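## Example record

The block below lists the input lines for one assembly entry, exactly as stored, with component labels intact.
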Amino acid sequence: EGYVVAVVGATGAVGQTMLEILAERDFPVATLIPLASSRSAGSAVTFKGSEYIVQDLEQFDPSGVDIALFSAGGDTSLRHAPRFAEAGCYVVDNSSAWRMDPEVALVVPEVNPEALEMARHNRIIANPNCSTIQMVVALKPLHDAVPIQRVVVSTYQAVSGAGARAINELAKQTGQLLSSQDATVEVFSSRIAFNVIPHIDLFMDDGYTKEERKMINETVKIMGADIAVTATTVRVPVFYGHSESVNITFSAPLDAERARSLLSEAEGVCVVDDPSTEDYPMPSEAAGSDPVWVGRIRNDLSCPNSLHLWVVADNIRKGAALNAVQIAEILIS
Ligand code: A2P
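Predicted structure tokens for the full assembly:
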């Protein structure tokens, strides 16, 4: 009664949360197999109160695995996801390696669950970029009411999106600066403590970063609509929870009041939006929670048919681990 589930990258920031979410949601796991690199093979992870020994992905034979949740970086996915899929296993991959492959489904369950049909033959499903996921969950109910023409987004992204070493770097630098030492810079391109870095992932020739390009391309693929998207992605000294300022232009009028009511009823969305009581979403409150939180919903007074939203979600949960487990739940249903 249950499935053989492998978690690839089980020692990482996302992998650890995948284990928690599988347990929380009582996913039918008959056998759990945590995998990572040879560096942490032999160490233990905890699942539902029991310890499991981490195995080396390189040495592991995937025969008999039903579902593998991958979160161990793009290179690892490119090398190992195909051999899991060929062994008959469904792979839900959290890296960017397969997302824009036209043969691979890129899925946010609240937005395009129907795309999973494509996965029946190739068995690899891509989990979108964290910033893209929370934005499209908020865009979808609005786009269904009035088609969206253009989106301008600026992000305020937590360090946990860059993994466990990045979380440690923010903590360590904060301590160093508060005790008048120099900050040690290892993971990010500059100091992240008490700073804001307008640079996530690599720069491309056109001046955009790859993170920005992901938001642009993935939004179009997931929404299945020719929406013009432009993005500026920024790292901020927050541990958990990405925030986004989203400006939307529609093809016809959709005012803030109607948007608020559509979002209040949307799956996976919680509206917190009351200026009179100073209520709006923040990462300090969204961290550890499942919904996409939306507030500051207001008409853009500078442009017709346009709205502003402020969108916050736990980037490790809805932005990664939770979305992957939700996809796995659809695959077994
Ligand atoms: P390991 O503990 O062996 O380094 P994070 O995003 O928090 O940095 O986590 C990355 C996850 O991906 C970790 O579990 C890490 O395992 C795993 N990982 C990184 N590189 C590889 C690899 N080449 N093969 C398997 N797992 C890997």
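Residues 131-315 form a domain with the Dihydrodipicolinate Reductase; domain 2 fold (CATH 3.30.360.10). The two ends are 14 Å apart (CA to CA).
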